[in-house]
Design brief:
With 270 residues, this protein is mainly α. It contains 13 helices and no strands.
Length: 270
């Protein structure tokens, strides 16, 4: 079945209209085999069907019987993963691969992280943390977010001002979020709460509220968003970030205590 889905996706990814239609027909044929009944009908019923429509038409399977069909169970199992999901498998694979490459670039060339000081690009990253995204994309987006914020207080301020904390905590509290993604989000929260490295720049508190973040939150200036320098509002202490995070999540104090006791990532709280 993996081979059938792989071949169908290859056709669907083509720019050739004929191949796209072929891929759609293959998927349609596969779904028909899974969902249409193969139970034998009486000779009279077959003759009546052929007389009316020219060919006998199988009826739909009863939903309760689908769970007993080995082919359907295999198909359902494959749909649980992003690679063979018929709805968006190819797009998700492309997104994950792109995020993997992006993290590599940000680690090799830290100055490239300044890209995410612009609202338009930070919004693109936060949009991937929508509950409708597949778990593989969500996990990869969280890791990319950590890489973008690493040693970058100004970009962290951009993340906060675009309701990034609301986005992360909403996904964390969502019942539909997978366990793996929730672990990644918990790791991100520990990372976020770590004290920031001071840098020369003006210090200004900008703790804006907001109970809901809209996708691709609009910038207040130009289509490209603010430039890096406009987000350089100084560093925040763990206590300050604890108060910010506490707006959206309970028991943040426990996270901070755990962070101080375990000192992950070599954190030092003086």
């Amino acid at each position: 079945m993996e081979n059938l889905l792989s071949l169908s996706f290859d056709y669907l990814s083509s720019f050739d209209g004929i191949k796209i239609r072929k891929g759609l027909r293959q998927l349609e044929g596969l779904l028909a085999q899974l969902c249409l009944s193969r139970t034998a009908t009486t000779a009279a019923e077959r003759r009546r069907s052929m007389a009316l429509d020219g060919a006998p038409k199988p009826g739909p399977k009863d939903l309760t019987s689908l769970s007993e069909d080995p082919a359907f169970r295999e198909f359902f199992k494959l749909q649980e993963g992003f690679e063979w999901n018929g709805s968006n498998g190819q797009n998700d694979l492309l997104l994950v691969s792109t995020l993997d490459l992006l993290r590599g670039v940000l680690l090799i060339h830290p100055p490239s992280r300044s890209l995410f000081a612009r609202e338009i690009y930070m919004n693109l990253l936060l949009d991937l943390l929508d509950p409708s995204s597949c778990p593989a994309v969500q996990s990869s987006a969280v890791l990319t977010l950590v890489t973008a914020l690493l040693d970058q207080p100004s970009i962290t301020r951009c993340f906060e001002n675009l309701d990034g904390l609301l986005t992360v905590t909403s996904l964390f509290k969502n019942r539909g979020t997978s366990r793996e993604v929730k672990l990644k989000l918990m790791e991100f929260l520990y990372f976020y709460l770590m004290p920031e490295t001071p840098f020369a720049g003006r210090t200004k508190e900008n703790e804006r509220g907001g109970l809901q973040r809209s996708p691709s939150k609009a910038s207040k200036v130009g289509s490209g968003g603010r430039a890096k320098g406009e987000w350089e509002e100084g560093t925040r202490t763990t206590d300050e970030k604890q108060r910010l995070l506490g707006r959206y999540l309970n028991n943040v104090e426990d996270l901070v205590e755990d962070l101080k006791e375990t000192a992950p990532f070599g954190a030092s709280f003086g």
